[in-house]
Amino acid sequence: MDIKAVVFDLDNTLYDYDAAHEAAFRILSGYAQIALGLSEEEFSAVYDAVMQEQITRSGGAYAAIHNRMIRFQMILERVRKPILYAPQMSDLYWAVFLDACRPVPGVREALEALRTEYVIGVGTNMTADYQYRKLQRLGLLDFIGFMVSSEEAGAEKPEKRLFDLCAEKAGCAAAECVFVGDSLSHDIKGALDAGMSAVWLSPPPGHIAEPKPAPDGVPAIASLSELPGLLRGLRGI
Question: Is residue 135 scored above 80 in pLDDT?
C-alpha cells in the first residue's frame, strides 16, 4: 500500500476530550448555580436541551452546532437571564477545558516518527479557532502540516466533502491517505466512503462504547504508539 499522508481526528484521538469537557462542565455548573440560580441538575438539563436545539436550528450538521458562545446565549435566553453572562460562561468553560487538555500517551513519539515519512494533517469537526487553541495547548502544532475543520469544509464528518479537502491539502489521492480516529460512525465510515484507508483508535475503558466492531479490514489500535509500526506493516516494510 502506497501511503503518503496520515490524517488524524482531534477530539478523543489526540487528547481526551471527554475528560476536558467534564472538568470544564463541572466548574461551569458551579458558576451557573451562583450566577443563575440553577441547580446542577437544572443546568445539565437545559444545556442538553439547548444543544439539541442548536442542531435543529442549523438545519443540519454544521460547525455552528459546536459554538459554545451561541449555546450559552441560548441557555440564558431560555432561562430568562441577561445575555451579559454568555461571554463570562464561554471564557470560563474554555479556560478550564484548555487547562485540562493532555495529549494521549504516545502521541508525540508517534508524530515524531511519522513526520519524516508522511504528510501529517488533522481533519476535525468544530470551529477552527478552538481546534487551533487545543493543538497549541497540547504542544502538537509543530507536527501538523495542514488542518481541515468542518467550519472550513462547510460539512461535518462523515460527509465526503471534509475528507476530500483533506486529500486535496495533503497533495495526494484519497487512496494514498490513512485517516486515524476514534469514531466508527464519523471518522472510519467517512474515510472509507471517501476512498481512504482508516485506522480505528479504540476508546479506552470508561469512554462511550462504539455500537459495533470496526469494519472488516480496518485495523484497530489501543494506543497511537502502535501506529508507526502498523503503517510500516501496511506498506510492507
Answer: yes
Instruction: Name, in order, each residue with C-beta under 8 angstroms of 223's C-beta and a sequence gap of 6 or more.
Output: 104, 105, 106
Residue 212 pLDDT: 66
- Rounded Cα distance between 147 and 131, Å, is 9
Separation CA 162–CA 152 (nearest Å) = 9
Of 100, 119, 139, the last residue of a domain is: 100
Same domain as 111, residue 49: no
DSSP code, position 65:
G
Active site residue 9: yes
Question: What is the structure's pLDDT at 65?
Answer: 87
142 in catalytic set: no
The residue from 11, 16, 182, 187 that is catalytic is 11
Residues 90, 173 share a domain? no
User: Does 44 score more than 80 pLDDT?
Assistant: yes
H or E element at residue 210? none
Residue carrying the nine cell digits 467517512:
190
Residues 6 or more apart whose Cβ sits within 8 Å of residue 236: 1
